[in-house]
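Before the break, one more example. Copy the sequence into your notebook; we will annotate it together after we see the structure.
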Amino acid sequence: MVQVRNEEIKEEINERQEDERIKSAVERLSDDVELIADCSRPYSLPTVCGKHKDLKSISPQTVEDLLNGKYPTIDNNHMILDCRYQYEYDGGHIQGAINTYIKDSIDNLLQLQDKPKILIFHCEFSSQRAPTLLRYLRSQDRLLNSDNYPSLYYPEVYILDGGYKAFYEQTQNLCEPCDYIQMLDPKFSEELSIFQSKKSRGNRSREEKMRKPRVIRF
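Here is what the structure looks like once it is written out:
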């Protein structure tokens, strides 16, 4: 009986310590909004007031400065995620950007062994596709780290204000090829239909898988 009681006391102490840790993390997030999402340090890049109040936005100028090496502490430890469809990406994208437009790609990103320090999302205007995938990343990241709040695999994530359009209009020399294909370009109406259908099927398939219990290993 004494041993059982001791175990209960230890469990109660652990629960109280966990509650205090979570409470402390929440208070730090509330007191200093400039801390990254795991409360470990300030944001590395200057932010701007974007259209998505729940997301951290950075300007095209900041991305240009990053690519030109003006943030040496970050160096190449970042990843730019272009959430447009492939024909838009192939028609012109920011140097080094990776084409990512479905949620399965975000799941793969969470399983990377060598994770970049910073992620930057964008689509054509950074209005819908990029914010949707960014929020999905954060929700899955929180879920995977739910036992160790506020830890995250990707605590420092930004969205490019104005999207590729704004970046291209300001910094064409950092786009490859140097061009800009709009999502609704009439010449690519067939491709648009194909990619939207593919994206829809992929999301439905993923939702069906999530209904079944599964173990995620890293």
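Residues 211-218 have pLDDT under 50 and may be disordered. The domain at 47-187 is CATH 3.40.250.10 (Oxidized Rhodanese; domain 1). Try to locate both features in your own notes.
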